[in-house]
Design goal:
The protein is an alpha/beta fold. 38% of the residues lie in helices and 19% in strands. It has eleven helices and twelve strands. It has a ten-stranded mixed β-sheet, with helices on both faces. It has a two-stranded antiparallel ribbon with strand order 6-7. Helix 1 runs parallel beside helix 11 and helix 10 crosses helix 11. The radius of gyration is 20 Å and the shape is globular. The protein binds nicotinamide-adenine-dinucleotide (NAD). Nicotinamide-adenine-dinucleotide (NAD) binds next to loops. Its EC number is 1.1.1.42. Belongs to the isocitrate and isopropylmalate dehydrogenases family. Residues 8-338 form the Isopropylmalate dehydrogenase-like domain. It is an enzyme of class 1 (oxidoreductase).
Length: 343
């Protein structure tokens, strides 16, 4: 049921175009009457400038811990201010082990794959694998990086993939790994996948070697329903998948864990266009719709989604990156058009 009392959500506008797309998204949600109360929090470049080595101050972490839900703009990875990425710090602090990226054709967004009925979800493990960042020079001229894969990590990511499939009424889970070469690490996801998915008899289960999966995503993307992968494979293939349906400006994501969920666009801070008022807010808006569904406000999410789809289909007042005639309008004008289409 739609929530009647406001749900508190931590909002991190972030860097570059972040504040612009965050404001646009909040404006649309407010116009649709979403029952959300924003708690604004700092993360990213300004936090690094203030000497916070993780890029996320304690007040921000406290806010996310309290609310359990966050919407985040892109954060610049520091060059010369500390070592870490604030994104990785946030995901790790709250053990947000699942990265969920829907890949769905959008009306009016023309791509070489338009009309194929692409509609699948990439579930990427988010905290293990080579992203643990454990690497060193073994001897001069020989670098080594550790690939950490745990049974617990594999089990929870496959369970999440199955839960996503069941919640969305999907039929099949494809576990994509490089188990033929890395029999222990990648092989663990394959084995755990087989064991866990036995508990979900309503879901068809297949294993696919990940390089073939990349090939299949381009050749016949409509065959996929829910895919699950280790961190680096999922990172690469989810970006490939975003490219199939219109690219970074329209690609949303969710970072899910047991303690908190953080929703964000796939794109970065786009410094070249920051401050010009021309950024496309669609990816963050679609991420906010995932967030509304996460907090149970399905009706508002559906209403905004409909207005957005009508706007894209009409093809008037779109930002430059998706405008059909190449003549983009300012972010604010696109937002006004979406709001007008709320009906
Ligand atoms: P980017 O996604 O910022 O930009 C890539 C290209 O896409 C650029 O041409 C940009 O102008 C365009 N673009 C991206 N989002 C757009 C939007 N909403 N509307 C219109 N055009 C858009 O990638 P990058 O240049 O590699 O990274 C810039 C910074 O962002 C780096 O500091 C990087 O570390 C950071 N980054 C952060 C995240 C995150 O916070 N999750 C993700 C990726 C990159």
């Amino acid at each position: 049921l739609p929530t009647r009392t406001k749900v508190k959500v931590t909002a991190m506008p972030g860097d570059g175009i972040g504040p612009e797309v965050m404001k646009a998204t909040q404006t649309v949600l407010a116009a649709a009457g979403a029952q959300v109360e924003w708690e604004e929090a700092l993360a990213g470049a300004e936090a690094f400038r203030r000497g916070i080595s993780t890029g996320a101050p304690q007040e921000t972490l406290d806010s996310i811990a309290r609310n359990g839900v966050a919407l985040k703009g892109p954060l610049e990875t520091p060059v010369g201010h500390g070592e870490k990425s604030a994104n990785v710090a946030l995901r790790k602090t709250f053990e947000m082990y699942g990265n969920v990226r829907p890949v769905r054709e959008l009306p009016g967004i023309r791509t070489p794959f338009s009309g194929r009925g692409i509609d699948f979800v990439v579930v990427r493990e988010n905290v293990e694998d080579v992203y643990a960042g454990i690497e060193h020079m073994q001897t001069p001229g020989v670098a080594q990086c550790l690939k950490i894969i745990t049974e617990v990590g594999c089990e929870r990511i496959v369970r999440l993939a199955a839960a996503v499939a069941e919640a969305e009424g999907r039929k099949k889970v494809t576990v994509a790994t490089k188990a033929n070469i890395m029999k222990l690490t990648e092989g663990m996801l394959k084995r755990v996948g087989e064991a866990v998915l036995k508990d979900h008899p309503s879901l068809a289960h297949e294993h696919m070697i990940v390089d073939n999966c990349a090939h299949q995503m381009v050749i016949r993307p409509e065959q996929f329903d829910v895919t699950v992968m280790t961190n680096m494979n999922g990172d690469i293939l989810s970006d490939l998948a975003a490219g199939l349906v219109g690219g970074l400006g329209v690609a949303p994501s969710a970072n899910l864990g047991d303690e908190a969920a953080m929703f964000e666009a796939v794109h970065g801070s786009a410094p070249q266009i920051a401050g010009k008022g021309i950024a496309n807010p669609t990816a963050l808006l679609l991420s906010a719709l995932m967030m509304l569904r996460h907090i149970g406000d399905f009706a508002t999410a559906r209403r905004i989604e409909h207005a957005l789809y009508v706007t894209l289909e009409e093809g008037r007042d779109l930002t430059g990156d998706i405008a059909r005639d190449g003549e983009g309008v300012p972010t604010a004008q696109y937002v006004d058009r979406i709001i007008a289409n709320l009906g």
